[in-house]
Amino acid sequence: PATFTLMPTPCPCGASADYARCCGRHLDDGLPAPGAEALMRSRYSAFTLGREDYLLATWHVTTRPAMLDLAHGPQPKWLGLEVMSSTESGDEAGVEFVALCRIGGRARRLREQSRFLREQGRWYYLNGVMA
Asked: Which pLDDT value is given to residue 75?
């Protein structure tokens, strides 16, 4: 009898060749991200997968929008992520990254400096400034 081995699915965040062992642990299995950079990477993956539920659940309550509508309007095709810097100090953190996407045939380079807070052992996205 033939045996088949499933190849791992590459993680959208680019940090691993295996989504299940990278961002999938957070998006699908509910494990909290161990740090702000891991949360930012998992949120990027959530954007690529259209996972509004995860994005809202990991957004700090003080800045979280009432809803997201990722399916409305032109959909970006996410092409890659590069983390420029990541710092943590106590329960606050910052991650600067560049995300590449294509919207309506035009390539875009989005650079953001994101802020994160840790509350009761979980990291949350607070806000970001486009650089």
From this structure: 82
